[in-house]
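Encoded backbone
================
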Amino acid sequence: MALLNRVTIEQQVAILAEIGITVNDGVAVDDLTEFEDREKLELQPYAGLVESLGYEIEREPFTPKCNRLWMCDYERIEDHGDYEVVLERLELMTDCALGLRDIEDYVDIEDDEAWVEFTYRGATIHWDAEVDNDWLDPYIIVKYDALLKKSRSLFRIYSIHTDCGEIAFFAAFTPEQKARFDEILKIELILIEEQA
């Protein structure tokens, strides 16, 4: 009977692509099954595959498997450039909805100072970040989402509300894509602004 519920990885990938969750070029099926085997992913469709798509491939060039989803390790802020990478990843998730330019940051854990700044619509915006060892200040992501909202972008940032330890799951969707995502999966994603 379980075989009747089986959805192949290829079928799942095709359905997810219809709502904007596309697998990046160069990502192989082996990259999708590195944490869970094919049988488990197909007998319990979508949830495991969506989680896998949030990670980077575990080989050169270590790029995202899918731009729209991000399994973000919060312990990632160690030096200059780390917040720049975070904003670049958020821009990738939203198809560069904000068009941020000239992203620069400063990170000095020992001096308890971190910030990121960038050019947005011709203006320089500066965000200070709270320093907590090597932990990402999640309010940087909240501020990015607030800027999406202010810019009237259709994209918004969502995440799982439950505590996942040092990893957070983020997704970027338009309202239509989010509604379709909710029909397919039973993962409760909440707007990041509602969790701040």
In short: The mean pLDDT is 94. Strands lie at 69-73, 101-108, 113-120, 123-128, 156-160, 167-173, 189-191. The helical segments are 9-17, 29-32, 38-43, 47-53, 82-93, 139-150, 175-184.
